[in-house]
Amino acid sequence: MIRSLIVAAFGLGLTACQPVSGGGGGEDVARVGGDTVPATYDWSFVAHGGSADLDFGDGDWAEGVSLFHMSCLPDSQVVRASWDGGSEAVLTSGTATGTFRREVDAAADHPVFAALREGNALAVGMDDADLTLAAKAPGRAQIKAFFDYCTHPLPPPPEPVVAAATEPVPPPLEGDDQPDDLSGVKPVEPGVDVVQPDRAAHEPVDR
Question: Under 8 Å CB-to-CB from 47, ≥6 apart: which residues?
Answer without folding.
Answer: 53, 149
